[in-house]
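4.2 Preliminary Data

To establish feasibility before requesting continued support, the project team ran the inverse folding procedure on a target of 145 residues. The structure was first converted into the token representation described in Section 3, and no sequence information of any kind was made available to the design step. The complete token record follows.
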């Protein structure tokens, strides 16, 4: 196995990530989901979820916007919302419901200031997984609001 440095890869990549990787991601999305993304300017590779979530929050949140965050959750979500100028709105989940957030909980948490909803499943740290039916019910609430 050759090290990348032995092949001349010794400098920083684009902030978007390697073009070849972005082209592969674009092809995968086209094949699997029938959507087109230009790998030159519509696909971004990050080093992990913290960076990706931070960038997404900074892109969409205006000062005072609320973001619904089911808990327990990954440690960086709420601070990232706050650093972007938003207000995290925690929604507790419970062992009795296998740590899945419900459409009813989401609906009760939505206000005129709600800008986004974090749905991170499989969940870290609980390992909870959402059911299709649950996600469809949440989608109905979000579309209605």
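Position-by-position output of the design step:
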């Amino acid at each position: 196995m050759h090290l990348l440095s032995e092949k001349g890869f010794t400098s920083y990549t684009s902030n978007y990530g390697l073009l070849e990787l972005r082209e592969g991601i674009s092809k995968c999305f086209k094949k699997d989901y029938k959507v087109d993304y230009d790998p030159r300017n519509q696909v971004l590779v990050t080093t992990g979820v913290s960076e990706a979530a931070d960038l997404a929050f900074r892109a969409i949140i205006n000062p005072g916007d609320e973001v619904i965050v089911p808990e327990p959750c990954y440690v960086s979500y709420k601070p990232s919302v706050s650093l972007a100028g938003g207000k995290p709105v925690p929604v507790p989940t419970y062992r009795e419901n296998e740590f899945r957030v419900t459409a009813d909980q989401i609906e009760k948490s939505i206000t005129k200031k709600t800008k986004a909803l974090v749905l991170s499943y499989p969940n870290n740290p609980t390992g909870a997984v959402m059911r299709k039916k649950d996600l469809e019910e949440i989608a109905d609430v979000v579309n209605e609001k």
